[in-house]
């Protein structure tokens, strides 16, 4: 589970910005929160609200980029640049980017820090905090620091027990974890397992559903391919149940997958029933909203089934506001979220503000210098627990609205 993450000099964010899922005892005692094994109270859900071009997508990029660093950076070409950009409209464009994440595995809280630019990782450090009956202790697991004079890393293995000859494989554009996994390093596999449960529709270029991106049309095909796999049959049935419950006239769907010589053809037939009338339609004739639900449910059901974090940009695209509420309600109710999976999403469907607490709302806007700034609503003075957040936000009381 994620506790918090932060970034500095990351795309449109110049100063240090943090998204925090940790709450105190003042947060309501309801199903929107849970007590983790570390005895920290965490929110299951947070939404990011703000005007167009305020930096919402950039904020959501932090954890997907972390996932890439931890899991896949070693796969990249040794000469490939790191897919990250600093804030480009000031002196900071020549400075490094700083990233940090606090996450929990089996009651232990890990803090993972990076300092990097698009050429190399300059600093990398992992710490672990253990809680015993007597006290809480924090230890450095490992660290590495780039020495510009020697053109080498100063690696402190500490308690990580990295394998022999590890440093020979360590590169400037790959994380320690991503490299150590190649040695079947047990502790690295443990860290990797957390980040592999981060599911998202955000890539380096932005929201993957943007039709200006070349891979946007792949989303639906990937969702259909996911539902076609035998190991996902239970999740397919759950998707059918939810789609039927959402009153779309849809009762079930069948995936047709055909392997050809150099490619795979995939399509879906949707069974509809209206009173005494029923029949099948190819998925291409379904509405944009129905197709979007197929795509979203793939990510949502996967995370709810195994636990983890779903990071979803443009959560409300092509969906009715009531549908958006129904989808994030899946994360709140224990019956549908037995593993306390977490959801971070951006939306312009501001009615969600009436269903969330001030500890679950992140506001974001750009200042006069074009720098994105974000804050959690409970950090603002004078915001009461019984305020109508939707009404006050629309009225401009909290900022983070378009200046028209």
TrEMBL record:
<protein>
    <submittedName>
        <fullName>Abortive infection protein</fullName>
    </submittedName>
</protein>
<feature type="domain" description="ATPase AAA-type core">
    <location>
        <begin position="48"/>
        <end position="353"/>
    </location>
</feature>
<dbReference type="Pfam" id="PF13304">
    <property type="entry name" value="AAA_21"/>
</dbReference>
<dbReference type="GO" id="GO:0005524">
    <property type="term" value="F:ATP binding"/>
</dbReference>
<dbReference type="InterPro" id="IPR003959">
    <property type="entry name" value="ATPase_AAA_core"/>
</dbReference>
<dbReference type="GO" id="GO:0016887">
    <property type="term" value="F:ATP hydrolysis activity"/>
</dbReference>
<dbReference type="InterPro" id="IPR027417">
    <property type="entry name" value="P-loop_NTPase"/>
</dbReference>
């Amino acid at each position: 589970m994620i506790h918090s993450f932060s970034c500095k000099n990351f795309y449109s964010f110049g100063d240090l910005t943090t998204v925090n899922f940790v709450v105190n005892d003042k947060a309501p005692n309801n199903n929107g929160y849970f007590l983790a094994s570390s005895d920290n109270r965490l929110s299951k859900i947070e939404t990011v609200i703000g005007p167009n071009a305020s930096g919402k997508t950039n904020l959501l990029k932090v954890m997907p980029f972390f996932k890439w660093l931890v899991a896949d950076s070693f796969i990249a070409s040794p000469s490939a640049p790191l897919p990250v950009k600093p804030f480009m409209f000031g002196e900071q464009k020549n400075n490094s980017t700083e990233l940090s994440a606090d996450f929990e595995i089996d009651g232990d809280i890990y803090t993972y820090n990076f300092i990097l630019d698009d050429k190399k990782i300059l600093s990398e450090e992992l710490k672990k905090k253990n809680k015993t009956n007597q006290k809480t202790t924090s230890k450095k697991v490992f660290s590495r620091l780039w020495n510009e004079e020697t053109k080498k890393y100063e690696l402190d293995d500490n308690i990580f027990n990295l394998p022999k000859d590890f440093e020979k494989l360590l590169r400037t554009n790959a994380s320690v974890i991503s490299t150590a996994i190649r040695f079947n390093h047990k502790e690295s596999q443990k860290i990797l397992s957390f980040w592999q449960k981060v599911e998202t529709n955000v890539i380096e270029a932005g929201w993957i559903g943007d039709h200006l991106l070349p891979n946007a049309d792949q989303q639906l095909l990937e969702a259909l391919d996911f539902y076609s796999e035998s190991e996902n049959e239970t999740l397919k049935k759950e998707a059918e149940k939810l789609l039927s419950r959402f009153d779309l006239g849809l009762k079930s769907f069948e995936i047709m997958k055909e392997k050809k010589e150099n490619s795979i053809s995939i399509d879906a037939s949707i069974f509809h029933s209206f009173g005494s009338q029923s029949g099948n339609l190819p998925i291409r004739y379904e509405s944009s909203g129905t197709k979007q639900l197929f795509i979203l449910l793939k990510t949502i059901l996967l995370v709810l089934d195994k636990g983890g974090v779903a990071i979803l940009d443009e959560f409300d695209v092509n969906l009715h506001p009531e549908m958006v509420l129904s989808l994030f309600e899946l994360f709140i109710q224990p019956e549908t979220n037995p593993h306390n999976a977490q959801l971070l999403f951006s939306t312009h469907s501001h009615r969600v503000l009436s269903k969330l607490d001030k500890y679950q709302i992140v506001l974001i806007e750009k200042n006069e210098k074009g720098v994105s700034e974000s804050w959690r609503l409970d950090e603002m003075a004078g915001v009461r627990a019984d305020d109508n957040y939707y009404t006050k936000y629309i009225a401009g009381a909290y900022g983070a609205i378009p200046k028209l």
